[in-house]
TrEMBL record:
Region listing for Disordered, in residue ranges: 26-45
Name this protein carries in UniProt: Maltodextrin-binding protein
Organism whose genome encodes this protein: Thermoanaerobacter kivui
Transmembrane regions: none
One Pfam family from the record: SBP_bac_8
Length: 414
């Protein structure tokens, strides 16, 4: 009995020792795994993101400065580089793995070509809150209800007036015509970008907005409203003789800067030059027509993440940071009008009388169509304006021919 008792006791001790040993091995393995995971996290290499930008050099330097703060917080690296390449250059670079992770500051009407080529990553939920932005800016970067870029800033044109000649800006079209006869009124009249405002004021449009996108098969540049607007543009030249039919932007700008004219349509890009030339001027929204605001064309500087970027998570995190922090610096550095409602209400923006006038005009602006078919519009529209203002072709005929040429141009894109 004692013999069996000793054997049992011995077996019990052996089992205990073996269990302890196994437990120790298991604990050691868990400890090693945890340590290994920690080492993996610690050894994670920082990501280097490349940003290409179409902004000016001073603005790019400011974006780099802000991106550096994100880099410090995340342990990653960012290079913001000036870029003036076209779509083909970007496409080639992106597909070869040499393109940027982010394009920052591209005019939104170029996005259609990029989107069609599959180069834009869709904006993930949580990057921005659409309700925080001017609605027009969200439309400018959207296709079929989906966002493929983030709006950064916006621009449009408005009415410059010489304060020594025009104490109070014209509020209506009749006021504009009356003052134009007295002090002179000029702009780049054959440039469709500017003259579109008077076409749209009467109901003309480029492509029909269906609420879910733009319909390139429905062109409204020869409807009754568009033709009425084109007649007004013709009157500016042939009836009121505000400007010659061959006027261009430089001529109109020079005449306003020298004081020969008191009224001039242009955008924020002319502000600094007029200030340096000591021109006594202010800016006001375009005069109302038929009791309604006159809708100008708007451009939005947009930013997108390349669909070919290998660092999507980090790129969108940087994008979110830039969208939240570049608005005011770009306003201060490059006269860029913010797209965030909160910044439009910022005292620094509100108290800038000139840029605030552009912001007011932008509230009623229409984003330039961002679909690829817009490329077929500019040439025929500009030609039609030249024929109309020179009196060579009646408005009806010129408008119908313009639309036919646009349709033919779109057909060649297919």
């Amino acid at each position: 009995m004692k013999k069996y008792t000793k054997i049992i006791a011995l077996l019990t001790v052996m089992v205990f020792v073996l269990s302890a040993a196994l437990t120790g091995c298991g604990g050691s393995k868990t400890s090693e795994n945890t340590s290994s995971q920690g080492q993996t996290e610690q050894k994670k290499e920082p990501v280097e993101l490349v940003v290409w930008s179409h902004l000016t050099d001073p603005e790019i330097a400011k974006v780099q400065e802000i991106a550096n703060k994100w880099a410090e917080q995340t342990g990653n690296k960012v290079k913001v580089l000036a870029d003036q390449s076209d779509f083909q250059a970007f496409s080639t670079a992106a597909q070869s793995g040499k393109g940027p992770d982010i394009m920052f500051g591209l005019p939104h009407d170029n996005l259609g070509t990029f989107q069609k080529a599959g180069l834009l990553a869709e904006v993930p939920d949580g990057v921005i809150n659409k309700d925080d932005y001017v609605p027009m800016s969200i439309s400018a970067v959207s296709y079929d209800g989906k966002m493929y870029a983030v709006p950064i800033s916006m621009e449009t044109y408005a009415l410059f007036y010489n304060t020594e000649k025009v104490p109070t800006p014209p509020a209506t079209l009749d006021d504009l015509i009356k003052l134009g006869k007295e002090v002179g009124f000029q702009y780049d009249v054959n440039n469709f970008y500017f003259s579109f405002a008077f076409i749209s004021a009467y109901g003309g449009y480029v492509f029909k907005d269906t609420g879910g996108g733009l319909d390139p098969n429905d062109i409204g540049l020869n409807n009754d409203g568009a033709k009425k607007g084109l007649e007004l543009i013709k009157d500016f030249v042939t009836k009121y003789k505000f400007m010659p039919a061959d006027i261009n932007g430089d001529m109109a700008k020079g005449n306003f800067q020298s004081g020969k004219t008191g009224l001039y349509i242009s955008g924020p890009w002319d502000v600094d030059g007029f200030k340096k030339a000591n021109v006594p001027f202010k800016v006001a929204p375009l005069p109302q027509i038929d009791g309604k605001p006159t809708p100008s064309f708007a451009g939005v500087q947009a930013a997108f993440v390349s669909a070919n970027s290998k660092h999507q998570k980090e790129a969108w995190d940087l994008m979110k940071y830039l969208a939240e922090n570049t608005g005011l610096p770009l306003f201060e550095t490059g006269n860029r009008i913010p797209v965030l409602n909160s910044l439009l209400d910022n005292p620094e923006v509100k108290n800038n009388e000139i840029l605030n006038a552009f912001a007011e005009q932008a509230k009623n602006a229409i984003p330039m169509p961002n679909i690829p078919q817009m490329a077929a519009v500019w040439g025929p529209a500009g030609n039609a304006l030249q024929l109309i203002t020179s009196g060579k072709v009646p408005v009806d005929k010129a408008a119908d021919e313009m639309v036919n040429q646009i349709k033919q141009g779109i057909a060649t894109q297919q």
